[in-house]
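Lab notebook, bench 4. The sequencing result for the construct came back, and we need a structural model before the next group meeting so we can plan mutations. Quick request posted to the team channel:

Model the 3D structure of this chain.
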Amino acid sequence: MTVASPAAERPVFSLTTKPAVLPSYEAALDRARDLAPRFKARVPETEQLRRLPDETAAELLESGLVHLMLPRRFGGSELGLDAVLDVTGILAEACPSTGWVHALWGAHMWLAAIYPPEVQDEIWDNPRSLLSSAVQIEGKAERVDGGWRWTGKGHYSSGINHCNWFCPALQVEMADGHMERRWLLVPISDVIILDDWRTIGLKGTGSNTVVAEDIFIPENYSVNIETSAQTPGAQMHPNPQYRAHSGCIFTPPLAATAVGAARGFLREFFDRTSKRRLEAERASEMSGQLLRFARASADVDAARALLIENAHRFSHVPVDHMTEMERVKCRRDQAYCATVSREAVNSLFQATSASALFDGSEIQRYWRDTNAAAAHAGLMWDNHGLAWGRASFGLPYTPGSF
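Done. Here's the predicted structure in token form:
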């Protein structure tokens, strides 16, 4: 198991232009459409590297697509969650790994905005800062004067190879003795990145393991996961999206990756099928495939619509104004959208021929990438669907993770 190169050797921090500030939702989508063909052409390289190529990371930064939810005072566009969702879907339709990393980097712009002002100033002293996190954690943080010391690991930190900050989600003891789950913030120079992301799906996301060896994390380099309405950053930025429930902001872009990857699958299926002559006798033979295609297309469109509806409904509502059922519904709907996308491609994959099984087949790549996206803990239907069902009937339930 190898160790990734140190941050100083990462060329993403040498950009040719200052990151753009995209003025509108429409401008963001147009920029994503412009870049998508480049990302699609780099898919073989992305999968071989098992992370984004440096050119892709630099283009995501220079284009401003990463900064859609970064506050304007720090050079971002401060657009809404709907822009992040639809840009992620466009990128994932071209290259699901690129879409996935964009989703995470974009969500972390929101996360960076809720830290204390002095911490935000340090992050954006470098306007090209990138953050990644981990919620699957090993090791406990020990309470010490002024913060915590932590030895442990964070698993599945997507896009971490190009980041200069790492955000582990840890259960920690506060100064008064009570326990909280908090997003901590760690300079990348304090940790070790293991090059261990070897998977069958989303191969290019570089979702590596991060190792911490007795590092100190000051208390002000942390925010409570559940109380974003009261965070220092929420008081700093007037836009209400920085007071929204983290579960309604952080995970939906990952579901949008599954939707985008499923759209890519549908496009490849259509292209393969349309090459066959649909004469009268062939059309009757293909009626089963065509019905599957119609159902899969409608399901994927519905998944995207539900994500956008929830973004409009919840992403500007302060977390302390949401009911518990609304929170559980957000998690349910995110898992549902990813699951519907997975089921759509699985149904259509059954209607493909043996040629779809070859490594060079685009259709099998979209199939495995859609399934990989839906396997994220924050998108697992068995967890989040059950939580909503139990909550609906007043039964005890486990909220589930991001």
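The chain has 14 helices and eleven strands.
Will bring this to the meeting.
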